[in-house]
Specification:
Elements: H1 2-10, H2 18-29, H3 32-37, H4 40-44, H5 50-59, H6 63-76, E1 80-83, H7 91-94, E2 102-107, E3 116-121, H8 127-138, E4 146-149, H9 155-165, E5 170-173, H10 187-195, E6 197-201, H11 213-224, E7 227-231, H12 238-248, E8 252-255, H13 266-273, E9 278-279, H14 283-289, H15 312-319, E10 326-328, H16 329-336, H17 340-352, E11 356-359, E12 363-366
Parallel strand pairs: 3-4, 3-7, 4-5, 5-6, 7-8, 8-9
Antiparallel strand pairs: 1-2, 2-6, 10-12, 11-12
Helix pairs in contact: 1-6, 8-9, 11-12, 15-17
């Protein structure tokens, strides 16, 4: 297992490979170690790889020295490496085409929690923004919602601290390695989060918090959640980038409105005006929109009604709900190996038959 980890850490380090190409290599080769065992001619036949990347893989054996160094680091500090094919890898990120192939995690929270929201906003919030963020998180107390953000100044750290105070797990997604905390003034909060949440990154140790890293970090925040909430933002900024990425991932986007002449309200008001975000005024609005108000009582196994009028593909889809009460449409496509167009048509028919119910965020529930 440790040997395979060496290959897993090394794979995205190869010059030009990155996360998308790494997944293509994994899909054809089966594992990270098998990628490195392939001949150049075999790698060249993989769609999207070509001569240059195939050569990079063959010549990229020097990345193992850096991978060995990282293994020593994660073993010393008890950090959990989460590779794309690991069962504990965040399932929501698997459906993001540019999701990281390797993550590094330290903490106690379940990254596959049933309800996950991201809270983002300006680094210099007004008094109104501070109050709105705190009150919003306070309203989520007792809901078992996992709160994620970027541990940055302003709205991010206010959300993390409010979650800690209200007994909610909270995870900070970092734009650097786990050998440091940035900003350093948030180190105390970060330590508390390790016991009541965690810290997550796709950057290796010794990676500085350079500005170019944070947009990349934002895709993890956007992909990891079911819904994203924006609290105060100028017309441009990192929080709007994150909201746009979340929308491209088919996540639900919410925004708190502000005064028309307030520069810190331009971003949120713009999202609402352009129908890119739903207006909310408190936690109750989000809980209602996401249908998270009522606690669901799950039975250990459900009797799946397989009507004789159903097609074989519809029966196949319905059987997936025997163990899980809620399924995302991407998970259904991935598990059944059916094209999304067919899955969408079958899901609509199962809704008409009163067997399934659609939920926000492209989720489906067995009735």
């Amino acid at each position: 297992m440790k040997e395979e980890l060496l290959y897993q850490i090394a794979l995205p380090l190869i010059n030009g490979v990155g996360d998308i190409n790494a997944k293509a290599l994994l899909a054809y080769c089966g594992s990270a170690s098998e990628v490195f065992k392939q001949k150049k001619s075999a790698l060249q036949k993989i769609p999207g790889i070509g001569d240059y990347l195939a050569s990079s893989v063959i010549k990229g054996k020097d990345v193992f020295r850096r991978a060995e160094q990282e293994i020593k680091f994660i073993e010393k500090f008890k950090i959990r490496p989460l590779f794309f094919t690991d069962p504990d890898y965040p399932s929501r990120l698997k459906y993001c085409n540019d999701g990281p192939v390797m993550l590094y995690y330290k903490g106690s929270a379940n990254l596959n929690a049933e309800k996950i929201i991201a809270v983002v906003g300006t680094r210099r919030p007004s008094e109104y923004g501070r109050k709105v963020t705190g009150d919003f998180i306070n309203g989520l107390a007792g809901t078992d919602v996992l709160v994620i953000s970027g541990l940055a100044y302003g709205v991010d750290v206010i959300a993390h601290r409010a979650a800690l105070e209200n007994g909610l797990n909270t995870v900070g997604v970092l734009g650097h390695g786990l050998d440091r905390i940035y900003p350093q003034t948030h180190a105390k909060t970060a330590r508390k989060m390790l016991a009541q949440g965690g810290l997550l990154t796709d950057f290796m140790s010794e990676t500085n918090p350079d500005a170019v890293n944070f947009p990349k970090r934002n895709r993890i925040v956007a992909g990891l959640c079911d819904a994203i909430v924006v609290v105060e933002s100028k017309r441009t900024g990192g929080s709007l980038i994150t909201a746009t990425i979340a929308s491209s991932y088919n996540k639900d986007v919410f925004a708190f409105p502000g005064q028309a002449n307030d520069i810190l309200a331009e971003g949120c008001n713009g999202l609402i005006k352009q129908n890119k975000a739903s207006l909310i005024e408190g936690a109750e609005d989000l809980l209602y929109a996401m249908q998270w108000q009522k606690k669901e009582v799950k039975s250990k196994s459900k009797q799946i009604p397989l009507s004789i009028n159903l097609s074989e593909e519809e029966k196949l889809i319905l059987k997936l709900f025997a163990e899980k009460n809620l399924l995302h449409v991407d998970e259904i496509c991935h598990t059944t190996c059916l094209p999304s167009s067919k899955v969408s048509a079958h899901l609509l028919q199962l809704e008409f038959s009163n067997l399934l119910k659609s939920r926000p965020g492209k989720l489906y529930e067995l009735l």
